[in-house]
Structures
1.
Amino acid sequence: MENQIKQKLNRELNGSQEKLPIKIVQFGGGNFMRGFTDYVIYKLNKEAGFNAGIVNVQPTAGGSVHKLEEQDNLYTLFSRGIKKGEIIDTKQVISAIQKSINPYTNYDEFLALAKEEELEFIFSNTTETGIAYDQSENDYTGPHKNFPAKLTVLLHERFKHFNGAKDKGLRIIPCELIEDNAFTLKKIILQYAQLWNLEDDFAQWIEQCNYFHNTLVDRIVPGYPKDDVESYEDQLDYEDQMMVVSETFLLFVIQDVANLKERIPFDKINEQILVVDDIKPYRLRKVRILNGGHTLMLAPAILSGKETVKESIDDQFIGQFLNETIFNEVNPTLGLDENELKDFAEEVFDRFRNPFIKHYQASIALYFVSKFKVRILPSLLGYVEINKKLPLNLTFSLASLIRFYQGSFGEKTLPLNDEESIINRFKEIWKNEEYEKVAELALSETTFWDTDLTEIDGLTSAVAKALSEIDHHDMETAYHNFIQFYS
């Protein structure tokens, strides 16, 4: 029957009435947490008997945990993407969250979490700016706006309630996208302990009885499908205001402390969750291949008229350019297992081809120079050091970036979105008519690269040659002429 009124998603309707012990408190119940961490815990419960319930703590005063509470903390997760060339399109109701708390309206309920006997883990995703010290939070009495301040109070209340028991410390696993996220969080907790004049014994308990795990997380979670909500609603026989869409790919790398594997059976589920001694190689892999892949094809793709990542990788020229650059010029500089790098790169290309996600090149162009410096330049420099010659594809990508910052191509205005000083400096550089001079000025600009790239033998003339080809031919012809010239 058309326009039938659907019942709101609830546990009785879904048959998810099991009561799970509270083992996890999470700060941040947004799209990423629900499409990533909560999904992982749900899967561990279903497939590995983990038997862990989550309490979701609202991180900001303007949050929406009440919407989750209204549907018994259930929501539908749609996972959509490509794996090894096959389209994956699944949905499932995630039931790991047992309760959601707004500490701004129910502060005592938040503090009571400290007394949970089986509480063992803290997960968080409060954006990259969430793990920060705010000196204005100078009073122990809450509620606090700052996430580390909230966590410090929760840990201190637990310390007091259990009289500093060694076995009541927690494992803190933050998912914010900053390097050494757990160590940074620990440092801030100790700062608050000092600011609030908490007991020395508490600081010792934090140091000795709580474990802080640095992480690397990777999954695209667009969230609520507001642009296409009706097609998702048509797949459900209930109302769900908190549905979430994610890609199928998931990577969770966690730095091991005190044998985490014994506490969470990550190896019992079929997901890419790695508990390792050192996460740096995995961060390097992600930055150079995933983020680097986006960045190195950006200018060639935009100058070829491609608007999205999928459109770019599906294009014969751009797709082959990306593939050859990653496998021949980026991977060999990383010093990691060749097969692991190959598998990771192929997964990345599958993600780029995801038909369910529109990732616009223009959005990747934000702070393009800075991204190139961090993601691509180390591969270019590493290749030169190893091979004593230029990586031609990375050189062409660099030349394309310089051409991109001229601001227009043919009749098209290019999406420059960078610091004003960078855009203005490129305007000055492009007042020169000789490509050799443009290349020399752009490559020697240490405010762009933190180094003088004209010192790399042959790079200036190679970039000048590529710029000339780009201005006189279509991008594919320009590239092939450039490669042929140096072959």
2.
Amino acid sequence: MNKLRLFFLLRKNTKLSEKRNPMFEANQYGKLFGYIMVGILAIEFLALGTFLGWVGAKEDEPQLVLYTMPFILIVDFGMRFMTQQTPMMLVKPYLLTPISKFAAIDCFLIQQVLDLGNLVWMTFFLPYVFIVWCGGMTTWAALGMLVLLHLMIVVNSQWYLLVRTLINQSMWWWFLPGVFYASLILPLFLLPDSISDKVFDFIEENILQPYAFSWWTFLIFAGLFIILFLINRHLQMHLIYDEIGKKESTKLKHVSEFKALERFGQIGEYLKLEVKSTLRNKAIRARFIQGVCFITFFSLMIAFTSVYDSSFQRNFWCFYAFVFFGCVNLTKVMCPEGNYIDLLMVHEENILTLLRAKYYYYCGILVLPFAITLIPVFTGKFSIVMVLAYLFTTTGPIYFLLFQMAVYNSQTLPLNDKITGKNQMENKWQMIVSFSSLLLPIVVVMLLRAIFDETIAYWIVTVIGLAFTLTESYWLRNIYNRMMVRRYQNLEGFHATR
């Protein structure tokens, strides 16, 4: 079987596998919301590409788009973390077949290169290229520009795949993209304007004008694509064998007992479970460390730069610091416990105690973002009243909303299988609750600020948050009672997806 036939066969098998998944119908809701978000982004990109193309045509500088490419590639890199997974889990069923494993890897990598998601940025590139072509650029030059811009996005997809695979193995690999992107962005903020102007003039005169759309540029990016493709081909095959074979290093580790939590009885035991899950399980630990990095980065950007100086941006990022851990983990609440949900059903109200322990744990970890957001408070970008308002909004209405997912979640979440494991949306409510948790509080605050004084608006939100926080025992019991009504339906889903 040649690679072309193998490519179409594997693609067909992948589609059939998705349709046979017991959660296929529910995942369609997630796809629907995804298509809506992509449509909104496409409209914004069309407007931005049209405006930038008009400027480039007017100034007779078609290479103007290249000034924006570093930022576009950074945004594209970040967006892929939300939408694109490594393709290694697709290889697992074929490891015992006579198909060449490298051929299967090649097919899945090529499938990722040809993914329609890579064409999203065409909504920005096409209007730009069309307008500069109307402004006098030759047809062949315009086509070459379009191909080069798309090639940059494809190279970025391979760069993302490499970084994502390495980060799945160790969080220390975050330093690789961190150092790379910091070297591109920080000089713009740290260098004096006189030096920055000289650097831009040098790049314009010696790089962009003579080589922006030359054959050398095509060859450089084509070479980068080939190199990254081959690295991914070798690295991911090596790692997939290690994970499928459960190859682990045996190191003697000190086991923490967290005896201080024993005074809280059964709740203390479940608190130990939450802490140890965060420390030991790769998937949960990775999300926690990513959250700390994102919150610290944006807090420092707000505190020491003027990048996010608008009122809406400051409110959003302050609230984001507190809601991140809940939106990432609590939308799939009880999914990790699906691995041993039968044991939790043995004793009466075991799950209610577990829910309370989870609530106390996720309230406790908010101490960390609270400490980080004090940095913008000290620099005058945040007010302490705003920080407290979003803290209690998270512990109150947001956690109330997110814990409702315990009633409807019924898909087991793998804890350590990060490359071969699946990470799909289980049901429509996860997407709805996630977006509502991120947007509704900001909308409410903005409406209150339009009616009342800013301080009064924050105090109103704080009181509402405290009301939900102090009544957590009542609404957690309500959630537990509704879970028990659906327990057999949820058990069936947990068993089917282990």
